[in-house]
Amino acid sequence: MFKEYRVQFSTQIFRMLCDTQARRLAVELRKAQTQELAFAVIDLQTSETVMPETTMENTWRVGLSAVEDTVLLLHTFTESNYPDNKGLISIDYTTATILWDNPHYYFDTIVETTAGQKALKVSNLVGERATDSYLHLRTGELLPANFFQTSTYPQQHAQRYTEAQAFFGQMQSYLANKVAETPTAVIDYLEWQDCFVIGYFINENNSLLYKLLVFNAKKEMIATHTIQNLSVHAPIPFMTFGTALLFLENLQTIQLIIAPNLPQ
User: Fold this and answer.
1) The CA-based dihedral angle spanning residues 240, 111, 105, 156, taken in that order and rounded to the nearest 10 degrees
2) Rounded to whole angstroms, how far apart are CA atoms 113 and 10?
3) H/E element, 30
4) Is the separation of the CB atoms in 13 and 254 below 8 Å?
5) Helices (H), the chain
């Protein structure tokens, strides 16, 4: 049996990211009409709110890069017409206080030592060359590179296919036979445990709907969901980590489905 729960927010969900242990979920919330930006952090094991919706004043041009330990890592945008996510801000989400900021680095990934300590891998442009550096999560201090290795994230994001790609046509034919629907614009695909998840848009009554389908290893459909008012240009609205599938129920609500009987 699936175990599931929902978390609802006051405004539109724009981006979702998990930490490397898949214990905490960070959510970026945006209200375009008033250019209000907020962040929240949820404990995925208990569904409790670790950091309630916290509005960032005068920071519309900021976005979510990562969440790790008790740190929320944000990036800034340098250009309005051609956004470039250069610059980092580190926030302790348990106290909502800024730990450090640096306008010169590009975020790459979370890395760890052989002892399991977490740090940031970042890049910096020097002339036309990019150089890699490693920073302490909580202080922003430079760390020696020889002690680090790239982490493997338990979270997985879907691959998005457009109509110009061959896989789009293959999945379009598959869905026509399975559910008698014709996807348009993009198709999102992700393998999850011994299942696979497909997300796609369809035209219905002159509007776009986003459909989410989950199939088991026998290609039997075991779950389905529809998201209304989702833009084709919005980030992919689902992700997985371990035996959990997380997706937008609507633009302000996250639903988490845990399948304990699936293999680890």
Assistant:
1) -10
2) 38
3) strand 24-31
4) yes
5) 166-179
Residue with tokens 């929902």: 6
- Give the tens place of pLDDT for each residue, 124-143: 866 667 788 888 989 999 88
- 83, 76 contact by CB (below 8 A): no
Task: Give residue-wise pLDDT tens across range 88-122.
Answer: 999 999 998 899 999 889 888 888 876 677 888 89
Burial of 105 from C-beta contacts in 10 A (0-12 / 13-18 / 19+): buried
Instruction: State pLDDT tens for residues 186-216.
Output: 999 998 878 899 999 999 888 889 999 999 8
- Return the amino acid letter for 29: L
Give the CA count within 13 Å in the CB-facing half-sphere of 180: 0
Q: pTM of this prediction?
A: 0.75
Question: Which of 16, 14, 41 has the alpha carbon at shortest distance from 30?
Answer: 14
Tokens of 56: 């960032």
